[in-house]
Amino acid sequence: MAHEVLVLNSDYEPLNICTLRRAINLVILGKVDVLHEDSVVVHTVSKSFRSPSVIRLRNHVKRPRPQLRLSRRSILARDNYTCQYCGYVGPDLTVDHVVPKRLGGPTTWDNLVCCCKKCNNLKGDKTLEEAGFRLRQKPRKPTYVPFISLTKFVASAQNEVWRDYLPVFHHDDKDANGEEKQRRR
User: Fold this and answer.
1) What is d(CA 67, CA 63) in angstroms, rounded to the nearest whole number?
2) Nearest to 100 by CA among 127, 82, 76
3) What confidence tens digit (pLDDT) does each residue in 65-77 have?
4) What is the DSSP string of 41-108?
5) Which domains are assigned to the chain?
6) Is pLDDT above 60 for 86?
């Protein structure tokens, strides 16, 4: 039962991602409504039913607004696991200071980018101009703070069914130089 289920609050705000086992328990206890089902059939002792994909709590859960923490995982997720210098997508990604620490570059959302090891080694502790690099997009703190972790939120956006229930999370339509980006269709 490695299947995951999106949990929504009573007002349809995404709260969590839980296991199929937990979702089935919530359904059986009558604590949730099933909004979407998958094609997988789950068999219990007394009945069979399709597995839930999206569930909504019947009672509202009040939670304080979470704070988005600056971390390596959050930077990688924000940049969609793509090197912000060359566009490489794959393993061996790291985080780079746009303005190097030796020049007083802070460890902030606006100064950290996802970077492949090759570009990080080439750039070293140089500025963008010294290294001859250009950013694909200007780094900034995400404006939406999900209740679920940013990494899970970005991964969840890949699920077409869940996408209808998740707020829009995207970057500006301009690159680091303020020029309009070409959209792929």
Assistant:
1) 12
2) 127
3) 777 789 998 899 8
4) EEE-SS-EEEEEEEEEESS----PPPP----HHHHHHHTTTB-TTT--BSSSEEEEESS-GGGT--SS
5) 1-62+148-167 (no CATH), 72-131 (1.10.30.50)
6) yes
